[in-house]
Amino acid sequence: MSTAEHVDVLIIGAGLSGIGAAAHLAKDLPGTSYAVLERRGTSGGTWDLFRYPGVRSDSDMHTLGYRFRPWRGDTALADGASILDYVRDTAREFGVDRHIRYGHRVTRAAWDSGTARWTVTVQVDGTTRTLTADFLWACSGYYDYDQGYSPRFEGQERFRGRLVHPQHWPDDLDHTGKRVVVIGSGATAVTLVPALAASGAAHVTMLQRSPTYVLSVPARDAVKRRLTSLVGERASYSVTRWKNIVVQSALYRLSRQRPDLVRSVVRKANVALLPPGYAVDTHFRPTYDPWDQRMCLVPDGDLFTAISEGTASVVTDRIEAFTETGIRLVSGEHLEADVVVTATGLNLQVFGGAELSVDGETVKPHETMAYRAMMLSGVPNFAFTIGYTNASWTLKADLVAEYVVRVLRRMRTTGTRSVVPVRDESVGEVPLMDFDAGYVQRVVHTLPRQGTVAPWTLKQSYVRDAVALRSARLDDGVLRWS
Asked: What is this structure's pTM?
């Protein structure tokens, strides 16, 4: 690749968001030159990185799939390999795979108003190269691919077994016949526990500091299966997608408006799937309201099945220290373990860790305000894709892509060189992500802010966003075109 290469649009990241963004350009804005820079050696992002047993979606596939390319079949919560195939098949179908540059780590991106261009610095095989682009689109997700969140536990160096993080699952780890402790209670933990229990572990213990809302959902969508036989794959996908959007939105709204009711419904569902007399309130009754954190979905209640069969158990306690043979808890109990998995979460990282600057001034994300949760105040010709926290990531990714295409089309037809959201200083600010998850709270002070009025607000509602973004005027008095 020549250091003088120039493209109309430069996309950072070849995962679910980046490939979706590029596919939108290919189908909706033909003639646009673009490149996708991927720091790793393969595409797929999350779905290539995570290799732990049982890895699967924690959102239903009929909303996690792209709007423009149906997820075939009736599987609701799909395994990671199937999702990876779907993402890569999409890249091939729209020719995106021919535009991906692997092993390209973006370190800096500098905007120059004089030329109305970004100069992007990348590291490739130990050398520094540059590209230029008219528009920069960050689709690298929001977490650090190099390192997951692993708090240090007292005495962990004494542990004689294997200590692993799900983000970097060892190929040589054999858990057959082993006692496994999974530290955590989020989506990764509730996926790992039944998967390890079903694949040969002697026993699996989910060790949690506090409970999470866990809800059993059907592994397959009966409505999708029936509709497909009647109207075909594409039409059934569209109907099923909207059915699931409405159900998810209704559950979220009900959780915010009637948290006690939703808490009661979830508890009753859990009681029905667990052994008689099980301590449901100890292990599955969180102290926070539903959807203050993301609710964990388990297909066909597989976690509850493993508990009922005795191959898995849940312990709610705090860790005092690791020992040579396991973990000693504050209660005095000792958990014997051959393998400990720290499913303790992610480290959040915006824009893939790249440093942005505008006319020589470094952009400090926490000093910017997010326009429609996809552009930054004072940063020209730049967009980013961040999905929903209360629904499937791709629902928002598709909306962002549609809006960016509208912006780019207007720039092309009018000869506009730059577009930038200009912040009204009278608009109040609040955190970008009003979400109680640990990975957000640890770094919320470093993130862009959102405003208290449109178009600076983030609604966390696909239906409202779909209407607002598709009908919004581009001449809204906030975007400045020049």
From this structure: 0.93
